[in-house]
Amino acid sequence: MAIHTCEALRACSPPLFTSIKLAPNCIRNCKFSVRNCLKNPNNSRKLVLKVKEKLEKEHYSLPVGKNGRDDEDMILWYLKDRRFSVEEAVAKLTKAIRWRQEFGVSDLSEDAVKSMAETGKAYVHDFLDVNDRPVLIVVASKHFPAVHDQHEDEKLCVFLIEKALSKLPAGKEQILGIFDLRGFGTKNADLSFLTFLVKFCSMETVRKEYFTEATIPVNFRD
User: Fold this and answer.
1) What is the value of pTM for the model shown?
2) What is the dihedral of CA 106, 136, 19, 12, to 10 degrees?
3) Where in the chain is the domain with CATH 3.40.525.10?
4) Where in the sequence of the chain do the CATH 1.10.8 domains occur?
5) What is the CATH number of domain 41-103?
6) Which CATH architecture has domain 108-220?
7) What is the spatial distance between Cα 140 and Cα 92, in angstroms, rounded to a whole number?
8) What is the pLDDT of residues 119-146, one digit of tens each?
């Protein structure tokens, strides 16, 4: 799958973690601000409305509705990601919503990605992992960058991430991505794909740490 598009999607969806370097006093102030917002729903609500108002005033042409400029759940998600900075949340939301609109994320469907999905190179597992996270599995040995159409790969990548996100239980904000490198060869090599990987582990680790006997994906049982 074309990972540079997945990176774009990560830019439009809050990352699983963020890192930032600040002076010690800034760190203390930042932590207090975030804790204050998380503990006081009224503060969070005020910031959500402030971001919503700025988006309407400064970026009126952006679409509305789910994943649009007035989606309060998404606004809150971005506020948390940006440590409740209104300006940073607005900037990232604007970029995200425009990207989704240009790529046509809302137009993607099972039929739209059917031909690429049938290669078996990636799919969303039927069960959650032991931490109640939706699971996206990528089978690297079935990825052929020299043969498969790049744009079709991109559509599949985006569609499956959206599908996994739609399976998030209430209160959960993470999905698990597993990249199966068994049988991986030079014909499957994709540098941008490899740089996207963040953790290598054995099949035994996948079985023990992420699933139960009842929920382990079939191709990880042997």
Assistant:
1) 0.71
2) -10
3) 108-220
4) 41-103
5) 1.10.8
6) 3-Layer(aba) Sandwich (3.40)
7) 31
8) 999 999 999 999 999 999 999 899 998 8
